[in-house]
Amino acid sequence: MSRTFVGMPPFPTAAAHALRDTQLRRNLAHATGTIRDKRAGVVAEVDDWEQLRVDGAAIKDHVLSRLDHYLVELEESLTRAGATVHWARDAAEANAIVATIAHAHDADEVVKVKSMATQEIGLNEALAEEGIAAWETDLAELIVQLGDDLPSHILVPAIHRNRAEIREIFAARMGDSGRAAPPDLSDAPADLAAAARLHLREKFLRAKVAVSGANFAVADSGTLVVVESEGNGRMCLTLPEVLISVVGIEKIVPTYDDLQVFLQLLPRSSTGERMNPYTSMWTGVTPGDGPQEVHVVLLDNGRSRALADEVGRQALRCIRCSACLNVCPVYERTGGHAYGSVYPGPIGAILNPLLKGTGVDAQTDSLPYASTLCGACFEACPVRIDIPEVLVHLRSKVVDGHRGDRRPKAEALAMKAASWTLSDSRRLDRALRTSGVARAALGRSRDRVSQTVPLPGAAAWTRARDLPLPAREPFRSWWRKQSGSES
């Protein structure tokens, strides 16, 4: 059984561990910096980039406002084109559907196109329990799978690995699940890619069943779209007899005209390319060409919950480009594993609580705080998701969810004390006078409590920053003296 994110600690604990890994930080800084630079170059070439962002957001919002209509239209179009449509309320239903189809064809293995939706539902692990091996064919996903690792980035799941580490994984593990790596394998990218190509080719040629996701689903034609850079996805989408596509219900665009907006936004925002090397589109079944049995699993798995949140529903605009990860100072220093989900970074910090709900577990509730609220993610997002706004909104929901706790947190007690003090002018006046005594106790000659002197009750704060001391004289006392009202 491969590793999963189940049981991951809250973000602060996981992040503290990641920050101590200097190799991880070097790998992330190099990779995210390279992607940022490429993206900036190709975005600068587009004169109407900001208008494209506005258009992309508007199309997504329109679909979300009429999602019931477009889902029915998509189902009708898919059925008319010869595909079989399945509806899955949650991960368990989706996994069961895929397993049932595979068993119906006596398949003990499937080849997979890189798919966030199938990672989200834990499809590989569910199929393994059914005796079905799921082989990842995307190069980065293959690295993660062979290394018994976890993905750490939406676009580049193995971004936390360098070439030397990848060579070691290929040399040690490829032979366990198929063709072994060449004995003289080097860490040159071309050699690593060639080894992966040979390893995967035998799987492509023998697989009866393939599983994919979809970047977009065109409602009026039933066309599904996958964009990629390597061509492995194209092999999965054309060679096997049976194709199963697991598609989030938010992936719909109404028409081909709408699709062209996103085919300009996505490659520039994700890989820093003007267009993806491979853009695959398929519409149901075409006799004698490609898979002769096509299934589409329309997945909810919390999306209806997110849609019901008036502030948070904008997260469903997400086209999984990962631009927000590549500009986030928190992600660059902690990596994706610290977020405890297949959706890391700023978008994961809002998408996971929206899909699962707040108050479910401490790990999910910690994610809205995994941000400095600097706003870089919003500026980079090709569909203008205001991630900082949603983060603040979700923080309030987390706090509200703990108001009835028998043992309130120190922060809640501090806020109650502040509310009690500030709600009465006499209490506030006494508190201000008392602050002068506190200043004297901490040192009259200094203006701040140094990081080297932890303040009782606020040690976690003062370990990382200086704390300004109270004023020598409260404003109210000063005003009374100036106005002559103090006897």
From TrEMBL:
Q: Which residues form the Lactate utilization protein B C-terminal domain?
A: 396-482
SUPFAM superfamilies recorded: 4Fe-4S ferredoxins (SSF54862), NagB/RpiA/CoA transferase-like (SSF100950)
* Name by which UniProt lists this protein: (4Fe-4S) protein
Is Metal-binding found in the keyword set?
Answer: yes
4Fe-4S ferredoxin-type domain span? 315-385
PANTHER family linked to this entry? LACTATE UTILIZATION PROTEIN B
Instruction: Name all LUD domain ranges.
Output: 73-299
| GO process terms (BP) | lactate metabolic process
Keyword terms: 4Fe-4S, Electron transport, Iron, Iron-sulfur, Metal-binding, Repeat, Transport
Cited InterPro entries: 4Fe4S_Fe-S-bd, 4Fe4S_Fe_S_CS, FTHF_cligase-like_sf, Helical_ferredxn, LUD_dom, LutB/LldF, LutB_C, NagB/RpiA_transferase-like
The molecular function terms of the Gene Ontology recorded here are: 4 iron, 4 sulfur cluster binding; metal ion binding
